[in-house]
Amino acid sequence: MDWFIEYYNGSALMIKVRRKIFEHKGLQHIQIFDTVNFGKMLVLDGKIQLTERDEAFYHEMLVHPAMFMHEDPSKVLIIGGGDGGAVREILKHDPDEVVMVEIDRNVIEACRKYIGVDRGALDDERVSIINEDGVEFVRSAKEHFDVVVVDGTDPNPISQSLISKEFYSCCGKISDYFVTQSQSPFIQREYFEAILRNATFKERRIYIGFVPTYPMGLWSYLIGSNKRRIELDLEKIRDRFRERKVDTVYYTPEIHIAAFALPKWLEDVVKVLQGRE
Amino acid sequence: MDWFIEYYNGSALMIKVRRKIFEHKGLQHIQIFDTVNFGKMLVLDGKIQLTERDEAFYHEMLVHPAMFMHEDPSKVLIIGGGDGGAVREILKHDPDEVVMVEIDRNVIEACRKYIGVDRGALDDERVSIINEDGVEFVRSAKEHFDVVVVDGTDPNPISQSLISKEFYSCCGKISDYFVTQSQSPFIQREYFEAILRNATFKERRIYIGFVPTYPMGLWSYLIGSNKRRIELDLEKIRDRFRERKVDTVYYTPEIHIAAFALPKWLEDVVKVLQGRE
To answer: Could you give the CA distance from residue A35 to residue A53 in angstroms, rounded to a whole number?
Structure first.
């Protein structure tokens, strides 16, 4: 095999691969490739989840805005995120406890063994891993989390429930801050709109970032809260960034603020959908 | 033909096409396609120059930051830009005179006839089109321009001289503000670095934006000046944006400021190259 191809709505991204390192068909179809220019690459059900070259662009932007908005994120829940990239970033804030609810144990094992982007985070003693459906978990959760992070795949039969109204509502009840990746608003508008319609919080905002190996490079995230303000205070974020000594590849406090400035067309899409609530 | 493919360093973008509308092999190999999901698409020497779906993301970010930094951009020079998208955006600032120096007359004619993104701008009476090499033009130019915009293709035998020290130096002498697209710093690092090494100005900054159909979606621009400050004053830009009544698809004053916040890795690349000067 020479090229891996992922199609999306009249376009496709090709990534040149050297060889397939791992493949397993279970709950999801897991493939791990060694690529020519992007390091190792994880593919689930035909969709690129990460490459070593740009996974930090995604994981840092998923995790750090919500984590830095919280003054003391000591207890964090991740739904999904089996590759370990999100846990790795969360641990940089030195929390007391991280609970990761990942439905597919095979993803965790394959990533730990063949990619290792978690850099040991999955084995950290503060991290507990629960193999359960994310919706089931939050539905019955009694604990409170400072931050809840949803690191799911494109909506599909397994992850569809992770963009449901009930799921978001449960997450809102147990968290100070909630954040989820919200797909490409440019080339996957229907997913983006579904997430925005269902994820209702007292306050919420969309922000964006570059992830070159995700559909057409433009990725979005939704941050919401029923209890806290979503405020963009550069000085406060800079202070926390310095205090917590978080080392990054992509994220900076300035990028944090800048990510909330949306292109006019996207601002308009968000406004129309907010109006519909 | 089903798919158009553009390759870049171990990756490639595929765009599904309905049919080829136009083809001409002259100074450059010009192709125009009708695509399934991106409208009409211009390709020069195998590289996507624009699609109707996202050309405004590029042209607005190329033009408006420099135009809004200038208090009265009444005389503007464009080098390249034969498709007419940059002229269209410049005219929104109501300048007295726009000079466009485009070496390839065939690009202008083909775009005007088959795409029309200029929306009449190429025929505006304030616009004069000169069919000449950009370097030759600026070398002998006696006039002064408020803003000089370089809208060139990827460096190749024809456009290579548009990233030379001499070219940038001449542009710096005849302009208040200078701006050029500066390729993808993520996947075309060698081009980006060459531009940054050669484009020396008293002040200069890199900024970025999303262009989904350009290599991996992350695009960069270099703005420089020997005479003016490159200041990011949101209130001033907001005032000018309102006064000039500029209608946009992508650009907003907030996006203008946000575009100068660079991902950490890119900030580092720029710092290293600045240090080398």
So the answer is: 10
